Amino acid sequence: MLIAALLFAISVTVVTFAALRVASSAAEAYREQFTAEAKVSLSELYLFIEPEKLYFLNVLMLLIGFLFTLLLTQSLIPALIVAVLLLAAPKMLYRVIKKKRLDKVLNQLPDALLSIASSMKAGSSLNQALEVTVKEDAPPLAQELELLLRELRVGVAFEKALDNLAARVPSNEMDMIAAAMKISREVGGNLSEILERVASTIRRKREMEGKILALTAQGKLQGLVMTGLPFLLGVVLYHMEPVHMSRLFHEPAGWIAISLILVLVTLGYVFIRKIVNIDV
């Protein structure tokens, strides 16, 4: 019996040590991946924050969310679901911030193009017109144009600098501007008039997109309400019938039901978003 107990203790120790090594390696790999992605993402947004601080904040929020959900539901499955959601939260937040920044840049484009065209009509070169626009305009478009000017000053080719600008601001509008400037530089022509026409086109396109967003706002809100309604009803029923509802979190049949609910609700939300999202 003593030998068997000793062997069992050794086995548990070895398994625990191996599990800790694997967990440590996974955590280190996640930290490196998170900081590398965060560094690129923050630089694209012109946010000068140390990626390490964001990593520790993310880990802290993950642990707090996991423990709070575990204490609240007394079940491991909901806590793991919350942990997974918090794990994916930084990327989702980055996408939201990037989209808002891109929308702001596109809204600033028509006025900026008209400013550049006016400066060129007054006799300024393209670089001088860009400098005036950078001084007068506000971020984030001013930041992108300033980086374009810096690249031109250090000797980057004009076409390459425009390609970099289009890559930083991925949109049909910026591709149109880059193509117009390249064609004007290669074959000649009145660039100020071309920019005015492009500005008019972009303004009309943004107005049409705004009207579509206004018309589809109700459908998007209905999608959010219908997605959140099952979870709200679940919370209400849990407080009304905690004994019966707790079976969802403590029995395999309940875990399957929760999984099906999550899958169906997600599919419903995706389908609604596909219906109300209209490309112009």
TrEMBL record:
It is found in: Cell membrane. It is a multi-pass membrane protein. Residues 113-237 form the Type II secretion system protein GspF domain. It holds the Pfam family T2SSF. The keyword Hydrolase does not apply. It comes from the Bacteria. Keywords: Cell membrane, Membrane, Transmembrane, Transmembrane helix. GO terms for cellular component: plasma membrane. The keyword Oxidoreductase does not apply. The chain crosses the membrane at residues 55-88, 221-240, 252-272. PANTHER family: INTEGRAL MEMBRANE PROTEIN-RELATED, PILUS ASSEMBLY PROTEIN. This is Tight adherence protein B. It comes from Halopseudomonas yangmingensis.
